[in-house]
Specification:
The structure is a single chain. Strands 1, 2, 3, 4, 5 and 6 form a six-stranded mixed sheet that branches. The relative contact order is 0.16. The chain is of the alpha+beta class and about 110 residues long. The chain has one domain: Roll (Diaminopimelate Epimerase, Chain A, domain 1), CATH 3.10.310.10. The chain starts with a helix and ends in a 12-residue tail after the last strand.
Length: about 110
């Protein structure tokens, strides 16, 4: 896949956000995951994100319904990096599992 980031940035979703696109496809059984995906967000200055939890909060329940089971295994196939993410549909929540690296910590003041 060779995305045209300028053209992707012009796409608008139902909520009006610019240039947020998820591309996904069923994986081959040999891949050890259920779905392979990529996430592009050039409309907000991120051409491609290597591992996007928010995207999987949408994809998890969708593919849980397609596959007929609550747990779905994803490979976000960012070239040279990416990440494996597992989701579990749990009522009105989506549980996300995978390996992560903390790159910044902060506290909100109340």
């Amino acid at each position: 896949m060779r995305p045209d980031f300028r053209r992707l940035a012009t796409i608008r979703g139902e909520a009006g956000e610019a240039g947020h696109v998820i591309v996904c496809a069923p994986a081959d059984e040999r891949d050890g995951v259920d779905v392979i995906d990529r996430f592009f967000a050039p409309g907000c200055g991120v051409d491609e994100d290597p591992a996007t939890g928010s995207a999987h909060c949408l994809l998890g329940p969708m593919y849980a319904g397609v596959l007929g089971r609550p747990v779905v295994r994803f490979l976000q196939a960012y070239p040279g990096r990416g990440g494996q993410i597992e989701t579990e549909a749990a009522g009105d929540r989506v549980l996300i599992r995978g390996r992560a690296l903390t790159v910044i910590e902060s506290r909100l003041r109340t």
